[in-house]
Amino acid sequence: MSTPIPIVAALGNMAQSAWLDALAGAFAAAGLNADVAVFDGRARDARYAVVWLPPPELFTTETGLRAVFNVGAGVEGLLTNPALPPDLPIIRLVDAGMAPKMAEYVCFYLARATRGLDRFGGPQKLRDWNVDRPRGTPPAVGVMGIGAIGAYIARAVTVFGYPALGWSRTEKRIDGVRCYAGADGLREFLAQSNFLVNVLPLTNETENLLDAKLFAQLPRGAHLINVGRGGTIVDADLIRALDSGQLGSAVLDVFRVEPLPREHPFWHHPRITVTPHLSGPTPREPAAAQIAEAIVRLEAGASPATLPGFVERARGY
Ligand code: NDP
After folding, report:
1. What pLDDT score does 129 carry?
2. Residue of the CA atom closest to atom 7 of ligand 1
3. Cα 240 to chain center, whole Å?
4. Considering only CA atoms, which residue is closest to atom 16 of ligand 1?
5. Would you kindly state where each structural domain of the chain is located, as residue ranges?
6. pLDDT score recorded for residue 173
7. Which fold has domain 5-95+282-306?
8. Which pLDDT value is given to residue 13?
9. 5-95+282-306 shares its CATH topology with 98-274
10. pTM score above 0.70
11. pLDDT of residue 122
């Protein structure tokens, strides 16, 4: 019998034992002989780490890591870890069941907004039968960031008859989605987006991208749904755009500071719906299966850069 592969887990405030069970099940199913232990500050010569917002000590203690697996799609929290070795390959999750959940979330709020159900606490409160009914041309939904999750969301909204647009850094072709790319495509993309869904990662380029100038390029009264990262939005500009009527409403699932501070104006703004970062929870079993598959490939000699979810540090995602 081969020596078990030593793996360390540092999963922050995630349910450790449920994750360890999921990893053990996935490793067994993949035929991997692995020994997974929770990081306790002591070195165990781990070959791989499975992490969510790990403490810097993980990297100063486990110095022989060959790759680190991020239990989520967004890696900005890991990339800013002060002890992260510059050459350590990072593999993030690709969809792993998050995309359908996030598409469901977006479609729920589209259904709500297009029926006027978000006004005044909803028609039931007012015993009002005279609400909006979506009989006209469906509003267009523009998705910023059409990677693993954004592309799924864009396709999902077309199922309900919404014209879908997508915007990315590099050119894309997605059936049924009008795609735009880069700074050149942004103006045209925004001018048509009645609903703007943000699924961009937080990088040097996307930080503060959604500001007054960008909101001004949307059709008047457009709605914003942010499921990407809070740091892509200039909070004060969003409030001003809502107060002026340039934006009709905003549904925000992610924030610059989380948990959203109790005194933050987003909590009680009449045109803002706040949800506590719940649109795309990471389903444990598919996530663990994705990690197991990647380890099998690495153990067979694959280069980390060839794996789905390999993070290109220079671009920040
Ligand atoms: P991907 O890396 O698959 O996709 C990212 C997309 O953003 C790509 O289309 C990419 O363009 C585009 N993009 C990145 N930078 C720029 C830029 N400067 N200008 C234009 N487009 C850009 O990521 P995922 O779809 O897996 O995840 C996206 C984000 O969603 C995560 O980073 C995370 O922040 C967030 N998320 C939120 C969750 C929640 O619960 N709210 C759960 C999961 C993820 P290109 O295609 O050209 O590379």
Report:
1. 84
2. 145
3. 25
4. 169
5. 5-95+282-306, 98-274
6. 98
7. Rossmann fold (3.40.50)
8. 85
9. yes
10. yes
11. 67
Residues with CB under 6 A from ligand 1: 73-74, 98, 145-150, 168-170, 172, 199-203, 205-206, 227-229, 253-254, 277, 279-280, 317
Low-confidence ranges of the chain (pLDDT < 70): 1, 119-122
Residue positions annotated with a catalytic role: 229, 277
Distance CA 80, CA 74 (A): 12
Q: In angstroms, what is the span from residue 229 Cα to ligand 1's centroid? A: 9
Cα of 177 vs centre of ligand 1, distance in Å, is 17
* Topology annotation, domain 98-274: Rossmann fold (3.40.50)
* Predicted pLDDT at 121: 64
Q: Which atom of ligand 1 is nearest to the CA of 200?
A: 7
pLDDT at 1: 63
pLDDT at 120: 56
